[in-house]
C-alpha cells in the first residue's frame, strides 16, 4: 500500500450525505481504496432526512494523529 491515497486524494476526509445506500456505498468504496474509519459516524436531521458524516484517514497518517 502506498503512503499516499490514490488520485491525489487527501489523507483525511469527511464524507457526508443522506443516510442511504448511496452514502454507504461511498464509505465502502473509500474502505476498498485503503482508507480507514476514523472515529464514529455523526448524524443530524435537516428537517427532511437524516444526514450522516464519517471521517476517514489514510493509514500512513495514523501514527501522527494518535
From TrEMBL:
Q: Which InterPro entries match?
A: DUF1737 (IPR013619)
Descriptive protein name? DUF1737 domain-containing protein
> Which residues are in the DUF1737 domain?
11-57
Q: Which domain of life is it from?
A: Bacteria
Pfam entry (one): DUF1737
Amino acid at each position: 500500500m502506498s503512503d499516499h491515497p490514490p488520485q491525489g486524494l487527501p489523507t483525511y476526509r469527511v464524507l457526508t450525505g443522506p443516510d442511504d445506500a448511496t452514502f454507504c456505498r461511498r464509505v465502502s468504496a473509500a474502505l476498498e481504496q485503503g482508507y480507514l474509519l476514523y472515529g464514529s459516524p455523526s448524524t443530524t436531521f435537516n428537517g427532511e432526512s437524516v444526514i450522516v458524516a464519517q471521517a476517514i484517514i489514510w493509514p500512513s497518517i495514523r501514527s501522527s494523529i494518535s
